[in-house]
Write a structure and sequence with these properties.
Radius of gyration of chain A: 20 Å
Structural class of chain A: alpha/beta
CATH architecture of the largest domain in chain A: 3-Layer(aba) Sandwich
CATH superfamily of the largest domain in chain A: Formyl transferase, N-terminal domain
GO biological process, one term (chains A, B, C, D): one-carbon metabolic process
Strand content of chain A: 25-35%
Strand order of the largest sheet of chain A: 7-6-5-8-9-10-11
Protein name (chains A, B, C, D): Formyltetrahydrofolate deformylase
Oligomer: homotetramer
Catalytic activity (chains A, B, C, D): (6R)-10-formyltetrahydrofolate + H2O = (6S)-5,6,7,8-tetrahydrofolate + formate + H(+)
Number of helices of chain A: 8
Helix content of chain A: 25-40%
Keywords (chains A, B, C, D): Hydrolase, One-carbon metabolism, Purine biosynthesis
GO molecular function, one term (chains A, B, C, D): formyltetrahydrofolate deformylase activity
Largest sheet of chain A: 7 strands, mixed
């Protein structure tokens, strides 16, 4: 039975990259299922994603061949086996619609690459997950205390280490991290922001939207960076609103946008479809 | 043959407004076709639009009855006869897709309430309308000269007066008006901005969008105010973009958004569907 | 404290309906919050929805006044008090995403007019609700047996009567009812169909869509009628697909469409926004 | 100055196709700009599109290398030079919004791969193009006469031959072709149908939509086949409608959908993004 793998490559632009990597897969008797590439001429940077299958006994040969090609081309590359899901820690505060949505999709088989290894909140279980069924997923309460951020982040690092978390999903987690923490999780911490950034940065975006009188509201999933609400955008979507929508209506409509935008962003990330490109992203569609 | 009319009302919130105005129409043997209302509780302000038909010989009676009801309720009201289209002056610079779209829709019967009385540009005809067939519509060239804004606005006022223009549509007109001029055309000058405001105010919004790495671009039609790009929003729309879209691609995709957003805004305005509500609008859907 | 109510009216087209009903509300010291109307000229039929508040002590006066106005105009009318939610029975088979979504929205306060009084399935609890937390909501198993439809419908009628169900929501319930049963629940039984009807009626719409090579898939919420997949449509939506989507992909994307289309249709119905108009509907937007 | 080219490949599924073709481009000192592929496992069929640049002096070498690779792999392939636009004949009847839109986009530089070589209509110029500026584009009037289809098609073949037309775009052309003619233009005759097929096949789709009470209308661009309204779909889109939309409203809203769907389909076709796959298509996004 062939085994599915995803090869991602990032390097300086130069001819022959696809030819070399696809040659490597073919030499291992592999079968290329899907290939996406993007050549960023402005940054002189090249991105490629290759989905393939190989027989299990050829996986380590493939790994060595890719290593050799990447070395020759000066490329950064990654080989991910589809059968090994990504250990994911989900953080939330009091609004559980994104958490609920992610867990439902996971239980329904829509996020096969996600393995939830814990839920973290600054509120106790009864508040953070009042409408969510966690099942066996461990819950961690990290209460917010004055001047306690350093300790809280230390505790969070402990949870990440213990659970082996590779991805951090901020599913409406309302606390700000230190710059140092953010740097340490660069490219593997996804947040959902309640506006079509760069419109309505900061607090209470729906109130801002209502005051400004816009005719659409949105949500933005982005990697977290030290610069708040400025991280590389992975996915955005919007819905129309009208003058008669109250802020409560916007919050309600917003929940639908937030949960689908975050779910898509997490799915793309887990599928190896998202690449950091300085403060932007390359996202290959599925 | 009955005659179509649109009654718009704006007043302080109070009970009985619909009852009173619909009573007036019924007493003139009129037939109410459509009614929309919005009660802005925050501003204590009420908006209503009533589309009706009356027999021509009852039109002046209707006018007097509405006058009387409005006086009694302390309401601002307007009675517009559908058979009298709105004299509209369109301004453009070098990009003619919005102008072309408006004129095509007008010729096609989609904008029966619009009567184009002229096209104004800061470029000569051959530049401003290279792909547009003006037909009988008069063209006016108002070249931009250093320190010449006052004179240019004077000339524009002259054109508006002579043509009897009631509405000014800025169809990608790239010059800024003086505060005084803007105040004088408040609520009857519509601009199309090339972004989903408040994102990407100011110059080169598509370049900004490309640099920020957003996953959607948009356009915004708004009434022009002294505060640039801050006028009351009438209509907005967006389209998805990807990392591989160049600025040229964004400009191309943007043209489609701009023309449909402007056409909708103009149509809503002409149909009496748009009300100013301080720095926001009330827009009744069609 | 004023009490919210919804007045719905359906009658032959004639002038003065809004005036009369709004007069009735004003005379009871009521406050009209929202009003929608539609005059179907082809059918000579008039539809109106009025949302208002009245003081509790005036509610019975309002009821009598409406009765009197309706009698005078020959109108069918209904007065619904917002504080009394609609008793709703949800039916499902094995796919629980719509059920899960409805219950989450209900717990989250998005469907305040819905009171779930039971869940019915042709499968046992462990199959029908494997990912759904029912809480206190009673579950009823109505297994499908050969030639057992009459008995099953008898049992269902029993459950409806006992639970006082006023609305039946088929949240991916895969069994067909008898004509007689369908007639008895006319206008209060909502189904979700997995296609943009009338495209792909019948079985396996996603397989049909894949074979036909369409570029979008959709879902349709409609009232159930004897004529399968031909009932009056309440709400529809679509999403784009591509040549590379497998049937499994369509099913996954379809789940998102199905759940939001059904949730909207149920919300509109509960808010008194949906009127039957022969084999079509009138739906006033929220 | 490098020259842009598009290589399209269609063959039986087998490993090594991308590797072989990209190797060929690299050996000619070419630069791969973009690559898309699709492996249809069900049909055991493989599709690839490669956009590249090569120096003019290497173009014929590239052509030979591709020939050789294609021969070795048993692949059908095509090399199209971007600097040579596709000779396109546009047919219309009385509704000119699609024709007008295509010509505006062409003049605006949005369809650089299209070279309009003529417009054909069953109506005279004054009727077919009353709102369209043809400029230098030749117009041909092919009036419909009883039993005259054979002659009309003969004349059309003459026009195609004389103008060297490679693509036929039916921009709301309301006449039906013979099976023989359709077979002869297979894969190079695009039609726009006024519904989201397979819903509302045949005549008067907007009337059908209104009668059925659907909540969205759409348009479908497809290759023409002998089986009317059953040709392989290239692009579809929809817009929401409501109960209050008259058939005239649907026609108006439909025009916007029709023109953007047809423009996209033509653009995709000209860019080598569309492949026939029996009675479906493979369309690589731009």
């Amino acid at each position: 039975m062939a085994q599915a793998a995803i090869i991602t490559v990032k390097c300086q632009s130069r001819p022959g990259i696809i030819a070399a990597f696809s040659q490597a897969v073919v030499e291992c008797d592999g079968d290329i299922k899907d290939i996406n590439q993007f050549n960023d001429r402005m940054q002189d940077r090249y991105f490629m994603r290759m989905a393939c299958t190989v027989r299990p006994e050829h996986m380590s040969l493939l790994s060595r061949r890719l290593e050799s090609v990447a070395g020759r081309l000066g490329a950064y590359h990654h080989l991910r086996e589809r059968q090994r899901p990504v250990r994911t820690l989900i953080m939330t505060s009091r609004f559980d619609h994104c958490l609920n949505d992610l867990l439902y999709r996971w239980r329904n088989g829509e996020l096969p690459m996600m393995q939830p290894v814990g839920v973290v909140s600054n509120h106790p279980l009864s508040v953070a997950c009042s409408r969510v069924h966690l099942g066996d997923i461990p819950f961690h309460h990290l209460p917010v205390t004055e001047d306690g951020r350093a300790e809280r982040e230390e505790a969070l690092r402990g949870i990440m280490e213990e659970s082996g978390a590779e991805l951090l999903v901020l599913a409406r987690y309302m606390q700000v991290f230190s710059d140092r923490f953010v740097r340490d999780v660069e490219g593997r911490c996804i947040n959902i922001h309640r506006s079509f950034l760069p419109g309505f940065r900061g607090q209470e975006p729906y109130r801002q939207a209502s005051l400004r009188g816009v005719k659409l509201i949105g949500a933005t999933a982005h990697y977290v960076t030290a610069d708040l609400d400025e991280g590389p955008i992975i996915e955005q979507d919007i819905e129309p609103i009208t003058h008669s929508d109250t802020i409560e209506d916007l919050v309600r409509k917003g929940r639908d946008i937030e949960r689908r935008v975050l779910a898509r962003a997490v799915r793309y990330h887990l599928d190896g479809r998202v690449f950091l490109n300085d403060d932007r992203t390359v996202v290959f569609p599925d």
